[in-house]
Design brief:
Radius of gyration of chain A: 18 Å
Largest sheet of chain B: 5 strands, mixed
CATH topology of one domain in chain B: Ubiquitin-like (UB roll)
Number of domains of chain A: 2
Structural class of chain A: alpha+beta
CATH architecture of one domain in chain B: Roll
Shape of chain A: elongated
Number of strands of chain B: 7
Distance between the termini of chain A: 24 Å
Helix content of chain B: 25-40%
CATH class of one domain in chain B: Alpha Beta
CATH architecture of the largest domain in chain A: 3-Layer(aba) Sandwich
Mean pLDDT of chain B: 90
Strand order of the largest sheet of chain B: 2-1-5-3-4
Distance between the termini of chain B: 54 Å
CATH class of the largest domain in chain A: Alpha Beta
Shape of chain B: globular
Order of helices and strands of chain A: HHHHEHHEEEH
Largest sheet of chain A: 4 strands, mixed
Low-confidence stretches of chain A: none
Largest interface: A-C, 48 and 56 residues
Low-confidence stretches of chain B: 198-204
CATH superfamily of the largest domain in chain A: Glutaredoxin
Number of strands of chain A: 4
Oligomer: heterotrimer
Order of helices and strands of chain B: EEHEEEHHHEEHH
Strand content of chain B: 15-25%
CATH topology of the largest domain in chain A: Glutaredoxin
Structural class of chain B: alpha+beta
Number of helices of chain B: 6
């Protein structure tokens, strides 16, 4: 991500330190991760210590300090989905992809995350891939869904 | 600033408006144990060891004295069965991380805390925040900070800043109750500037 | 773009909108809330538009994409006005019939109607369906009538009349007085009287004050704030502006989870429209009152739902809560008086101003006035969002509205209040929902999540689940929460794995006491609640796990085993083929046996075995019977021919 774009995002928020999180959200959204250079740039322009940015970038789940895979898998582990068996779905997806929540596989194909409630409780257990919701999941259905992704 | 009159452990204490109960107690020579408190730093309220009972208008509450403001007619009890039980548990929880830390051992004797109550944890750090806050508020270098949250929270040095500032400073070292800080610093230093002879892939 | 400069102009404009709308013109409302969207309502919408165009009806039929209707189990949902015909689970392939038969020929399509499970009758009209009939949808009801992206729709149902009334006919004190009189209590979790909170801010000497909408709905299983914000954002804006007027604030914030992109989008659109029409900005409706609203997105932290943590996040920091010794309505955002209220709380304000506190207080109980929206989810037939008056018995919500437990299973408990709440068992189902009633039973109202659990839910696992959630979401600053939960999680996990020991329960209780008394914020203080309430009502389950290494609900993976009863197995090979771990040994006419070493306890075989055989058994607390010898596994079938 070029520095010019980062400057634009910061200027849009009037260079205010309080919009730090909003600035980082935009960079994350466009770039899919937060490279160290971007954090240093933000620290410099917003006059915020790098330790604070580092804390924020690791405190909030929306941010990633490492590149994400081409396809993001989100498994809902909210209470309603949990009660309907989300743990078994998660276990099976872990076995299929070889990664655990928070990780990305070595081919940068899949990133796996757990989320707490996507608000589709009627469809639980829910698995979301690249924003597309797959409802009423069961361990045996996960392989069929994932094999469609390159 | 107006004067406040309160009672701590049965003793009349004069304090100024804006003081905390901890400051008032210390001014009157009454000891309340602390771990994350330091005169040069803003109160943190993280360790909860300074917890005391306060009674105001007939209601008793448990509050942390390093942050709670003094008020007129406040009745404070720095020791009670409840307070002691809480301090004992806090110490036992912390000693899962640092069972041999001097300060913790001393306090454990006072409160009957068992250093082996809980299974040992891998990290020494008890998150008093003294190193982070000292570097931010006193030295204003921000070389070390917190990362992550919950049970994954840790302290972390920014290698570029640390390599510049820390060698000649190290003022946070004696502050650390459990020597975790030194371990973190040494580790970071090693990662940042590997010895020129080895071609290892550590660090960036 | 026209700007409305006075209440009189507003009424004139509203009449103008209504005069252009024919109430008898056919209108197809399609629920486009997030859940229905996930079920495919987007495709249905596209099909509707295409079909209407194809049949040349574009001028005669309106389509309105609305927010969530609440009956999420049966989405996508269509309601056809003016007849109020309600169709469920619509797919694009149903669309041609809907247009030809229902719109053109006014004929009802039976297969798309709701069937009453008891009487087996088909019900045509939305308001007669038991799910809706037994609710009182004062706040949520508007969702079905408006397109959230259209401010004119909101005006058509009377929107912004409360704001006009407050600004032109009432003083700030009178508005505050009305809200106090209504006894409106916070709908986000704390249940603190809103009027009292507002009064504290109003009386604080600092002149710059803030009002904040807490839309960081973090309780898993609760999504009513999402539905409100997505479906009726103007109601929240109106309530917020009225509140700002009451306390003397000119700047408001809406903190929305970034996990709710549709809510962020719709609220931003609503703000732009409100600004264009003059309901936000300078000199609103000619009253001289200025107010602006800024949207901030959350970044994925449950703890930011706590009011002081939210304010810290608004300041651009990590969301660590602050001690509440000086309340945040006096010293809040940037150290200034800040009124923070939940989405649903703000949405109630226009109603209270329009219809008066006396009207509002006729609903609910003595201590809990008005209605509450609950998200009824989990092991329940009619999953969705329900709004009932406070004081409604839990059993009515679960059975009359919720339709009871699916699959013929037995009700076990209903969990309310999210990770800060607790479980209510069967013998307390007569409990009338209300803030104090739920707290006394060991739970709490929280944001309104109601997770129904049946006989297959392990209550020890439930408390482990919530503690696990909180170890991740805790900010980590204070010892009782961070370290206390760390140890509680370890102990509870051991118990669910069959490694519990005597003394574990007592140790958990001790840690719980420390967390409740000494934690910094409400997250830590209420963290032990799920454990304490399940221990109170289901102690026998804990003891079974610890002493007998048995999970009574047959749920904890390490404590159960799947076993095929050789007397019942008919070697149909269904489970064998479906097993993801290839752990079933057998063949045609060879009785199947589960290889316990390979079995991952996923439960697929249990669900796959045909009910008429019911050969797969789940057992716990007893050793798995040894497999019968190979020689005895052949099934000899009697030949069908002679």
């Amino acid at each position: 991500m070029d520095n010019g774009r980062i400057d634009q995002i910061i200027d849009k928020h009037h260079g205010e330190a309080s919009s730090l999180i909003q600035v980082l959200l935009e960079i994350q959204s466009e770039n899919h991760w937060l490279p160290k250079e971007a954090l240093e740039k933000v620290s410099e322009k917003l006059h915020v210590p790098l330790t604070r940015i580092q804390h924020i970038a690791t405190f909030y789940k929306a941010f990633s300090l490492v590149p994400k895979g081409r396809h993001e898998i989100h498994i809902c582990v909210g209470t309603a989905c949990h009660v309907r068996g989300a743990t078994r779905v998660l276990d099976t997806v872990q076995d299929l992809t070889g990664i655990r929540p928070g990780e990305t596989d070595l081919d940068l194909k899949f990133s796996l995350e757990t989320v707490n409630c996507l608000g589709c409780c009627a469809l639980g257990p829910v698995m979301e891939v690249d924003g597309k919701t797959h409802g009423k999941m069961a361990p045996v259905k996960t392989a069929d869904v994932l094999k469609n992704y390159e | 600033m107006s004067e406040i009159l309160l009672q701590i452990d049965g003793k009349e204490v004069r304090a100024k408006e804006g003081m905390t109960v901890l400051e008032a107690a210390r001014s009157a020579g009454i000891t309340i144990p602390t771990l994350c408190h330091h005169e040069k730093l803003e109160p943190f309220g993280g360790c909860r060891l300074c917890i005391v009972e306060v009674e105001v208008r007939g209601w008793t509450n448990l509050v942390v004295s390093c942050v709670y403001p003094v008020a007129n007619h406040l009745i404070v009890r720095t020791r009670s069965e409840k307070v002691d039980r809480i301090r004992k548990m806090i110490l036992e929880l912390l000693m899962a991380h640092a069972p041999d830390a001097f300060e913790l051992l001393e306090l454990a004797k006072e409160y009957g805390a068992d250093r082996n109550r809980f299974e040992k944890e891998a990290s020494f750090c008890i998150h008093c925040g003294l190193c982070v806050r000292y570097c931010a508020e006193v030295k204003k270098k921000n070389a070390v900070g917190f990362v992550d949250r919950g049970i994954r929270k840790e302290i972390s040095f920014i290698p570029e800043i640390a390599s510049r500032e820390c060698w000649n400073c190290k003022e946070c070292f004696p502050l650390c109750p459990t020597e975790a800080l030194q371990a973190a610093f040494v580790l970071t230093k090693a990662l940042y500037s590997p010895p020129p002879s080895s071609q290892s892939a550590s660090g960036e | 773009m026209l700007r409305i400069n006075s209440p009189a102009e507003l009424e004139k404009f509203r009449k103008g909108i209504l005069s252009k709308r024919d109430p008898n013109k056919p209108c197809i409302t399609l629920c486009s809330g997030s859940a229905c969207h996930a079920s495919g309502s987007g495709d249905v919408a596209a099909s509707l538009e295409a079909e209407i165009e194809k049949q040349g009806l574009s001028a005669e039929v309106d389509i309105r994409r609305t927010g969530c209707h609440g009956f999420c189990e049966r989405g996508p949902i269509i309601v056809i006005h003016p007849e109020e015909i309600c169709y469920f689970q619509i797919e694009p392939k149903d669309v041609p019939d809907i247009i030809s038969q229902t719109i053109k020929e006014k004929k009802v399509i039976e297969r798309l109607l709701y069937t009453d499970p008891d009487t087996r009758e088909k019900i045509i009209h939305e308001s007669e369906i038991p799910f809706y009939k037994n609710q009182k949808r004062l706040v949520f009801g508007s969702n079905g009538s408006i397109d959230p992206k259209s401010i004119d729709d909101y005006l058509a149902i009377g929107g912004y009349s409360a704001l006009a009334k407050a600004l032109s006919e009432m003083s700030a004190d009178q508005v505050l007085g009305e809200v106090k009189k209504s006894n409106l209590r916070g709908r986000g979790g704390g249940g603190f009287p809103a009027g009292r909170k507002w009064e504290g801010s109003r009386n604080a000497p600092e002149p710059v004050k803030y009002v904040i909408v807490n839309a960081d709905e973090g309780d898993p299983g609760a999504y009513m704030d999402r539905a409100l914000l997505e479906g009726n954002p103007h109601a929240i804006l109106e309530g917020l502006t009225i509140g700002a007027y009451a306390i003397g604030s000119h700047e408001g914030y809406i903190y929305v989870r970034q996990e709710y992109p549709l809510a962020v989008e719709n609220v931003n659109i609503a703000i732009r429209q409100a600004e264009a029409y003059g309901f936000l900005g300078k000199n609103i409706l000619g009253s001289g009152f200025d107010f602006k609203v800024i949207v901030h997105q959350g970044a994925g932290a449950f703890v930011c739902g706590e009011s002081t943590a939210l304010m810290t996040a608004l300041e651009g920091r990590a969301g660590e809560p602050r001690p509440k010794y000086v309340r945040s309505n006096i010293v809040g955002l940037w150290g200034r008086p800040s009124v923070l209220n939940n989405v649903e709380t703000w949405a109630n304000v226009p109603l209270i101003i329009n219809k008066g506190a006396d009207w509002f207080t006729q609903f609910g109980t003595e201590g809990s006035k008005g209605t509450k929206i609950f998200s009824l989810v989990g092991k329940i037939t009619n999953t969705g969002l329900v709004e009932v008056p406070m004081g409604t018995p839990l059993k009515d919500i679960i059975y009359k509205i919720g339709g009871g437990i699916p699959g013929g299973k037995r009700f076990k408990a209903v969990q309310t209040g999210g990770p800060s709440g607790g479980c209510i068992p069967e013998d307390l189902l007569d409990l009338e929902v209300g803030f104090d009633e739920l707290t006394q039973a060991g739970s709490m109202m929280g944001s309104g999540g109601m997770i129904v659990m049946d006989e297959e839910t392990c209550m020890v696992d439930v408390s482990r689940y919530f503690i696990d959630f909180l170890t991740d979401e805790s900010c980590g600053k204070c010892v009782p929460c961070r370290e206390g939960l760390r140890q509680m999680l370890k102990i509870l996990t051991r118990i669910t794995e069959g490694k519990g020991k005597e003394g574990d329960i007592e140790l958990l209780e001790e840690i719980s006491e420390t967390a409740k008394d000494a934690a910094l914020c409400a997250l830590g203080k209420s963290a032990p609640n799920p454990f304490l309430s399940t221990l109170r009502y289901f102690r026998d389950e804990y003891e079974a796990h610890i002493r007998e290494k048995r999970c009574p609900a047959l749920s904890c993976k390490e404590l159960i085993a799947y076993h095929i009863d050789p007397a019942r197995c008919q070697a149909c090979m269904i489970c064998l083929k479906k097993c993801p771990a290839e752990a079933i040994v057998g063949g045609k006419n060879r009785i199947h046996v589960v290889d316990q070493k390979k079995c991952t306890k996923c439960g697929t075989c249990f669900e796959a075995c045909p009910p008429r055989f019911a050969a797969v058994k789940k057992i716990s607390g007893e050793p798995v019977p040894s497999p019968i010898p190979e020689a005895e596994r052949t099934i000899i079938r009697k030949s069908k021919e002679k």
